[in-house]
Amino acid sequence: MEQGVAEPPSGLLDSIKENFGLKDIDVESYSPLALAFIGDSVFDLIVKTVVVEKANCPASKLHRKTSEIVKAASQSEMAGWLMENGVLTEEEQRIYRRGRNAKSPTTAKNATVGEYRRATGIEALAGYLYLNNRTERLVELIKMGIEAKDKSLK
């Protein structure tokens, strides 16, 4: 790089922070539901990216494929597999539990309370990893969860 020229942002989060003048904040200070709020969108974006890249088809079909993966019951299954198979680090388990145990004022239409809470845990973990710029780990976990879910359907 030329002297005096800023390094380009390394990813989406860095680009957002740079362009909107946002400061780094200790992610540990966010509530688990705030982490789940951003995590829901990040999880959805990753899944939608995979679905679109695998099949360029009508939007209604893309929506059905995405919904099958991002619904609370599927996220709950993924969470169960990740926890049962010891995939999550101690730190990740702690964040997942914070999200799972958070008292949410809403519930999912088509999921049990337990499924919804486990899904909230996964979304909180997704938000935490995203806000810590650890998207490679986040993508790795989502990929493992989707692959485990796909195997259980066969």
SSE class = mainly alpha
Shape field: globular
**What fold name stands as the CATH topology?**
Ribonuclease iii, N-terminal Endonuclease Domain, Chain A
Largest sheet: none
DSSP strand count: 0
How many domains, as an integer?
1
Overview of this protein structure:
The protein has 154 residues and is mostly helical. It has one domain (31-153): Ribonuclease iii, N-terminal Endonuclease Domain, Chain A (Orthogonal Bundle). It has helices at residues 12-20, 32-54, 59-70, 72-84, 90-101, 113-131, 135-153. Helix 4 packs across helix 6 (113-131) and helix 5 packs across helix 6 (113-131). It starts with 11 loop residues before the first helix and ends with a helix. The model is unreliable at 1-9 (pLDDT under 50).
Keywords summarizing the entry:
single chain; 7 helices; 154 residues
In short:
This protein is mainly alpha-helical and 154 residues long. It is built from 7 helices and no strands.
